[in-house]
Structure formats: C-alpha cells, structure tokens
C-alpha cells in the first residue's frame, strides 16, 4: 500500500500558516541578497574574501530568488489547503457525507476539528491510507497521537489499538485517539479500558465535529433522561438545530448539566447552560 513520502522543504513550508511561510521566505531572501555580501566583505583573508564575495554576488542572488519562489508558492498552497479544510469542516455535518470522503480528506477534516478546539495540529507524515500516526496534537503541554481510519465496512480490530498503545509509549505521548467511520470490535474496546486511549467510532464522530460548531458536549456521556428546570426559572432557549424545545440534561460522567433538544435522538443538538 502507498505510504506518505518524507517531507521536503516545500512540504514543510506548505505545512506552515501561509503568513508564516511568506515571512520566512522574505527573511531568507533578505539574508541572502543583502546580509551575506556584507558578511563576505568583512572576511580578513583576501583570498577567502574574494571567493565568498563572488559567491555572494553571483550565486546567492539566484538561490535567493529560487527560495523566495518556493516559499511564495508554498504559502499559496497553504492558503488553499486551509480554505479546503474550512470548507470540509463547514459542510460535512452527517455521517453519510463524512463517509463519502477519501482517507486524505478524512484526515484533513479531523485535523481541522481539533484545530477548531484549540489544538496545535501536526500532520506527522507517519501514516497513510493503511494506518499509523496521522496527526500529533499539542495542547496544555500534552501530546496526543491520532490515527484516522476511513474504513466503511470493517471493524477496527484489537491489533490496531495495541499498535497505537505501543506507539504512545514509544513516542512518549500522553494519550492516543483512534477515530474511524465505522466501529470497534469488542476486544478493542476491552483493551482500551483503563488506558489513555480514546476510541471514536461512528457513534461519536459527528458529535466530535459538532462540538466546536455549537459548543456541545460529547453525547456518549450524556444522560438521555430529562431533568426539569428549577421552579421560577426562565425557560430554556429553543433548539439551535430544529427549533424544538430544549430540556436540561445531565452528563453521567461529570454530573454537569447542559441543554439538549427535546427531540433526541432524532435531533442531537446540545448547548451549554448560560
């Protein structure tokens, strides 16, 4: 199966925000065009000074223009890629639409979802259509390894979860997350219990992507039993997705309350109580 190639200078520059890529290109260009000749003139040895001055005068300007072109084109690529990611995140709001993506688009979508949540996301280059570490997340001093599995008709086996747990220890990460468009085997779920492994299957995938769009909490931990509001309280706002009434629900894990649509599970809109 095809693997991702090792990143080159263009790949690294394109992975930067486009503004950063342009800034780095301008700095490198200025250093080669104007700083290098000045430094060459300060060399005391006449022979060395003559040689380095010739290089700085004739060779470095050509190299400077080439590098400026590389960083400029990579900035354009970065800008276009960022627009693609934003479009994916804005338009893929249900499981059927997500499953229409190819593995690379799926990885981009998941990366953008975590960026929207405040993570610094690095596409590691260690994965591919057949697995591996696809994303590395950094936030609050912690590192999380993410594998994206775009499998439509196969359960994720326990061997995949074991492999990611081994990579967690190998890379010194704090947690791992395996995100797929399907489901996990019973053995895979049992193995993850009590370990820093988050398994996100089709039952949580849409909620992960919705979390930043509408400030929801993961529904995997939500108690579907309604909790009546206290007497005299102002009624909750209508559902932001379908306009129905919202009710107060309780998170089974934390005990915190949040608003959920009264049409659950047909409508899964949730929001924080303000």
Layout of helices and strands:
Elements: H1 9-15, H2 18-41, H3 46-91, H4 95-99, H5 103-116, E1 120-123, E2 135-139, E3 142-149, H6 158-171, E4 175-180, H7 186-192, E5 197-200, H8 202-214, E6 222-227, E7 246-251, E8 257-261, E9 270-272
Parallel strand pairs: 3-4, 4-5
Antiparallel strand pairs: 1-2, 2-3, 6-7, 7-8, 8-9
Short description:
With 274 residues, the chain is α+β, with helices and mostly antiparallel strands.
Question: Main traits of this protein?
Answer:
elongated, 274 residues, 5-stranded mixed sheet, alpha+beta
Oligomer: single chain
Helix content: 40-55%
If helices are DSSP runs of H or I spanning 4 or more residues, what is the number of helices? 8
Structural category is alpha+beta
Beta-strand percent range: 15-25%
What general form does the structure show?
Answer: elongated
Main beta-sheet strand count, sense and barrel state: 5 strands, mixed
Q: Average pLDDT across residues?
A: 79
The strand count comes to: 9
Strand order of the largest sheet: 1-2-3-4-5
Stretches with pLDDT under 50, minimum 5 residues? 126-130, 214-232
Could you state the order of secondary-structure elements as H and E? Answer: HHHHHEEEHEHEHEEEE
Report the span from N to C terminus: 50 Å
Provide the gyration radius in Å.
25 Å
């Amino acid at each position: 199966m095809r693997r991702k190639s090792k990143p080159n200078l263009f790949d690294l520059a394109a992975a930067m925000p486009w503004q950063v890529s342009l800034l780095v290109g301008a700095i490198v260009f200025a250093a080669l065009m104007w700083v290098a000749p000045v430094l060459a003139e300060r060399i005391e040895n006449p022979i060395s000074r003559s040689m380095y001055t010739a290089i700085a005068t004739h060779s470095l300007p050509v190299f400077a223009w080439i590098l400026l072109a590389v960083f400029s084109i990579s900035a354009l690529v970065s800008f276009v890629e960022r627009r693609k990611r934003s479009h994916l995140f804005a338009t893929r709001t249900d499981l059927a639409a997500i499953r229409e993506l190819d593995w690379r688009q799926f990885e981009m979508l998941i990366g953008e979802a975590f960026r929207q949540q405040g993570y610094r996301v690095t596409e590691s280059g260690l994965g591919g259509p057949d697995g591996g570490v696809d994303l590395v997340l950094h936030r609050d001093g912690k590192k999380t390894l993410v594998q994206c599995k775009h499998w439509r008709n196969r359960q994720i086996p326990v061997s995949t979860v074991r492999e990611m747990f081994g990579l967690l220890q190998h890379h010194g990460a704090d947690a791992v997350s395996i995100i797929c468009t399907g489901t996990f085997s019973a053995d895979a779920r049992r193995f993850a219990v009590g370990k820093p492994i988050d398994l996100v299957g089709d039952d949580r995938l849409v909620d992960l992507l919705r979390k930043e769009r509408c400030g929801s909490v993961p529904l995997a931990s939500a108690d579907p039993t309604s909790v009546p509001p206290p007497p005299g309280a102002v009624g909750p706002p209508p559902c932001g997705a379908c306009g129905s009434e919202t009710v107060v629900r309780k998170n089974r894990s934390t005990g915190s309350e949040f608003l959920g649509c009264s049409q659950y599970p047909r409508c899964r809109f949730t929001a924080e109580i303000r």
